[in-house]
Amino acid sequence: MNKPSYEVSDFGTTKYGEKARKFTLNGAGGVVLEVSDYGGKVVRLFTPDRDGAMKDVVVGFDSPAGWDGGDPYWGCIIGRYGNRIGAGRFTMNGVEYKLPALNNAPAGIGCNLHGGARGWDAYVWGAEPFVNGDDVGVVFTHVSPDGDEGFPGKVEVKVTYTLTKDNVWRVDYEAVPDKETPINMTQHVYFNFKGEAGGTIEDHVMTIAASQVTPTDPGQIPTGEIAKVDGTPFDFRKGMRIGERINEANEQLEIGKGYDHNWVLDEGIMAGGKGGLIYAGGVYCPLNGRNVDVWTTEPCLQVYTANWASYDQTAKGGEHLSFRCGVALETQHAPDSPNKPQWPTTFIKPGQTYRTTTEFRFSAK
Ligand code: BGC
To answer: How many angstroms is it from 131 CA to the middle of ligand 1?
Structure first.
């Protein structure tokens, strides 16, 4: 076991003119996590393969400029509302709220995505690195004002990244609003266990502990139906190569251009499960044995396989990213929950604290 430690360095200036820093967290178990206070972005993450060789396994960039395009939110903290809100509208306590509806707007089916034009990912947060016993981490804080991107209420947010001696990266989210407001946060890290310029993740084996998904309309808004995965390309319960069925003729796969869907976790409260910290799924690379298991207190998991060919950017090593260069396992409440009163609520009232935890447990096999 190593002694956990951290280093702090400059990370350049964001397009909004804010100075960013980078925190290198050296975990006692060997995993190293480089993150920025710019939206909690993951810059690098080194995990061991089955021979103990370390490699950077996330898509990230060496300076804030890599994120100038915003979308696809490589490795960012997402808020106030992660995922989509249909037409950028919702009604709460009889009042209708209108949010920017920029996503899918050219297709005439715009919606609010990941918090709007400038979500929480695009701010430099307060950041306090720490070593606590065998743990090392950073506490990120941010204040979102009342009316931010059309959302009601000021929200004080705290996100803690902790790297443990067991090579677990834990993300603890806390948010306190002063008015009722929808909150649905996630971490948008993209893994590629061959390295970010290692090509497609279609050869990675994915497991998802879910018997149901929430199919969407062509604008990627859940229709409200909860569909069984049995016999479909969405059945990852026993583990399946991501590419095994991704190109099948299937209406949902056509809408997402691959996997870009929300699974309802069997043990989560939306499926009538026990809730608490539950196993959501994981991804494994048979070539080198690198593996991540995701545990969460959230009821759902959005899996996104970076399906848009316009993700044509230069990676840290100077090589090009490619189609399906990463897979994001986004723990969350279901998309469009503010417009789906029959689903677990995302409305948080004043006096309540939004609190969720997700763990990325790294190993090799
Ligand atoms: C969404 C995708 C989107 C991606 C990047 C994912 O969470 O489900 O549809 O393209 O984020 O913004």
So the answer is: 33
**Separation between Cα atoms, residue 194 and residue 110, nearest integer Å:** 35
Atom of ligand 1 nearest to the CA of 72: 5
State the pLDDT at residue 310.
64
DSSP character string of 291-354: EEEEEESSSEEEEE----TT---B-TTSPBP-TT--EEEEEESPTTGGG-TTSPP-EE-TT--E
298-308 pLDDT, tens digit per residue, is 999 999 999 98
Please give the model's pTM, rounded to 2 decimal places: 0.98
Nearest atom in ligand 1 to 256's CA = 9
Output the ligand 1 site: residues, CB below 6 A.
71-73, 83, 114, 220, 260, 302, 304, 330
In this structure, the chain runs to a length of: 365
CA–CA distance, 40 with 127 (Å, rounded to integer): 9
Distance between CA 270 and CA 132 in Å, rounded? 35
**Cα angle 286-291-296, degrees, rounded to a multiple of 5:** 140
Per-residue pLDDT reduced to its tens digit, 259-300: 999 999 999 999 999 999 999 999 999 999 999 999 999 999
Determine the pLDDT at residue 309: 65
128 an active-site residue? Answer: no
Let me know if 298 is a catalytic residue.
no
How confident is the model over 196-249, as pLDDT tens digits?
989 999 999 999 999 999 999 999 999 999 999 999 999 999 999 999 999 999
Architecture of the domain spanning 5-203+288-364: Distorted Sandwich (2.70)
27: nearest Cα among 131, 138, 163, 161 = 163
For tokens 């497991």, the residue is 207
Strands 77-78 and 5-13: unpaired
Q: Beta 327-332 vs 260-264: how paired, if at all? A: unpaired
